[in-house]
Amino acid sequence: MRRFTTGLAGLALIGGAVMASAVPASAVEGEFVYGSITGQPQVLEDPDGCVNVQGRYYADNQTDEQASLYRGPNCTGEPIRILFPSDQTGVRSFESVKFGQLVG
Asked: For the residues 9-36, what does the mean pLDDT come to?
């Protein structure tokens, strides 16, 4: 009986480890700072995916992923600039920013 109980405990531990490894990590960490229409800085904290903004003048990527700037909303079309972590740039205007690697 002891051997059967030990076997079940081992299976429970393995199952728990598999479940824990299936939990996704946080997407993006850090801040993305950009100029707004009013000239006041705006900050996105731990942004994820595509974010619509009214960006003007500059962008400062202090996240751990690349940020792709798009002229229009919803991150469609070709990016006008790509900022790697710790990059900053002057930019006339952009309406959306997508965080993470671009695929093909």
From this structure: 64
b (16+ CB within 10 A) / e for 60-92: bbbbebbbbbbbeeebeeebebebeeeeeeebe
Query: pLDDT (tens digit, 9 = 90+) per residue, 32-90?
Result: 999 998 889 999 999 999 999 999 999 999 999 999 999 999 999 999 999 999 999 99
Q: Per-domain residue ranges for the chain?
A: 26-99
Fold of 26-99: Gamma-B Crystallin; domain 1 (2.60.20)
Phi-psi region of 86 (alpha: psi -120 to 50; beta: other; left: phi over 0): left
